Write the structure tokens for this entry.
Amino acid sequence: MNAPNKSGWKPEMTAADDGMHNGPRTVTGNRALMLEEPLIFELAGTDTTGVDLPEIELGPNRLGGMERTAAIGLPGLSEPETVRHYTRLSRQNYAIDLGLFPLGSCTMKHNPRLNEKVARMPGFADVHPLQPVSTVRGALEVINELAFWLIDLTGMHGVAMSPKAGAHGELCGILCIRAALEARGDPREVVLVPESAHGTNPATAAFAGYRVENIPANAEGRVDLEALKARLGPDVAAVMITNPNTCGLFERDMKAISDAVHAAGGFVYCDGANFNAIVGKVRPGDLGVDAMHINLHKTFSTPHGGGGPGSGPVVLSEALSPFGPLPFTARTADGVVHLVEEENAAEFDHTRAFGRMTAFHGQMGMFTRALAYILSHGADGLRQVAEDAVLNANYILRSLDDLLHAPFGEGGPCMHEALFGDRGFGEGLSTLDLAKSLIDEGYHPMTMYFPLVVHGAMLIEPTETESKAGLDQFIAALRSVAERARAGDVSMKQAPYYAPRRRLDETLAARKPVLAWSDPDSA
Ligand SMILES: *Cc1c(COP(=O)(O)O)cnc(C)c1O
């Protein structure tokens, strides 16, 4: 760390302090080319500036006495110092381009660079949502073409392209269901959500104003069909099923569930975020699904670490399609793709839209990536995506189930993710300790403590883009930490030893986040 050091910042305790490895303690806190880095406010004072601006004479203003009187308090780094600060920080990140990223339910797979090339073509990358429609014909063509393939792959009737994330798509689907129920004069109050559903499902139903009721899972980790049937009735608007579910299992009773829900006058929402496990193999439309979001950023591959970008188109059944939101694209018999908005909705026989989800048409960059992905894979390639995703997860499941407790392992193969619990760990050791030890081995941890139905859950999604050699290396690392956990190796409680930061109090950070830096000098 060679930058000016304002506040006498010192590196945290390093692994050498713990006697974990024998090297000398460095004065910089750096470990070889792994550089330490303080906060930007600790690097430089606010009394300097990295840019040379002319003094300005402040004239009268209309701020009515609200104008700032003190200095703004930004650190005065020069351009090279700023570039290095953020580059050093970026090196402390883990990314899918560095290695396997086994975060269950998140589908952290390789994103083909071809998609990026297509998304960056100026005609797509520079398109603006307020451009005249006549100048964006190519973009509309792409949206419409992607819509066609999403409908084709899912066996559904229509698709709302504009939702900007999976959870946003869920809200869109539930709003379609509400509009359809209201249109037939039958507003209902309850949405049923099984225990094996993703957490966003009950959140969406509650956000849309429904009362959420839980349906238990059976011993196999699937929806308890009899409990579901027993609860159906005239107050149930919809059932939200995640399939494959968050235990990594296919809901085999999906068709029976749909038939029962439809017989009771309700609708079936399917959380299709895990579509990469079944794409090309199963069409949700054939299973009686009425609405399902697809996470383009997961199944159809866009880099999506750190919260974005996302895109969650919702495919809709014939019963729900008339209520889908504006705007959308439609091709007329002359081959032209039109943008359907309020003013021309009647021409396209779409006057019952529930409203709109976003100001414009969705995430253009994700549409181009997803279409490039679909067209470059082809039907056989997409089917192989699902087959390889499932094969890789089962390879992990069977390579570890002698060491880690696989709660549903006896019920047969899993889908695209392998689920383990903490049973058999030594006294006082937890899933958290195992995950932190995995960081020392150079892997991002799996999804932890989710799903809730399994104690100390570890949900591992290797995805289809890992090679056997890559999986074998990961399995070796995981076996080693699993063996230590079973043997009761209490040193795991201090892990990670080799990460730039040691174990953090994540609960405290979530409950009492410190979001602003305060200068210890002025305290
Ligand atoms: C990722 C995911 C979601 C939420 O998708 P976002 O794009 O993060 O809003 C919902 N359900 C399941 C099963 C998921 O894996």
Observations:
- Confidence is low (pLDDT under 50) at residues 1-5.
